Request: fold
Amino acid sequence: MGDAAQGEPRQHEVFSQPLKVQPAFEFWPTPKTYREYPGGEHLPDKIKVWRVQNTGKRSGGVVARYYGFEDSPDAEILTAGFNDGKESGAVGVGRHGNFLQWGFSPRRRR
Reply:
């Protein structure tokens, strides 16, 4: 996953306090891999994204795949990541119990 989240962030207090997240949206080409998963054939040619961080990376991990994450007890997807290696909707930021899971690549200090 790169530096961007896909679509609108969900309504959750983590995006409103202590500081309000005000994403600036852009439209990026839909990754080819999104078309390989169920529902991918119905996606538009461009996906609405917003930059979460600015490391210049286009790769990294994700918290979890979309399918099955919210089936776990006390788990929720806070925002999907824009990921050219997984399906549309793969979890970029998720919460499971009292753990906030961050799937974006860490910024490396020099």
The mean pLDDT is 81. The CA atoms of residues 93 and 102 lie 5 Å apart.
